[in-house]
Amino acid sequence: MKIIKMGMPVFLILASCLFLVGSFNLPKANLGNPNGPLYFPIGLSFLVLIFSVLYLFQELKTLNKENKKITLMLAGRTPKLIGLTVLLGVGYAFIFEIIGFLFSTVLFLGALLFVVNGKQKWKVNVIVTVCFSFLSWYAFSVLLGVSLP
């Protein structure tokens, strides 16, 4: 776990340096300010670099302390919930094209709510599932005119 926690800021520092170098190699604009296309990627790269260095220092300070939050998180039902959510998401991705947005969303959201809330709150699960699925379909298909599968 410590390798991952230390590896991420190092990876982000390296990635932001690569993006920074790449940003300086962007072509100049022909119209307006010639350096206009450079401002956003350079600024974003600097922000990621600064926050990654701060994150690295923060992780170095807490390197020797035991992180009790992670231990508590892995002790409860959280790993089961994470695993089931990932499996349901993969299943949703597979059935989305086959049965369409509305029915696959009802199945996915319903199963997810039953996993999280349990069978005791089945009325709330069904109402939220049907209302959210229908309202999101209505908003995208009818109001926004986006064609959903």
From TrEMBL:
InterPro entries: DUF1468 (IPR009936). Residues 10-149 form the DUF1468 domain. This is Tripartite tricarboxylate transporter TctB family protein. The chain crosses the membrane at residues 38-57, 78-95, 101-117, 124-146. Keywords: Membrane, Transmembrane, Transmembrane helix. The keyword Transmembrane applies.
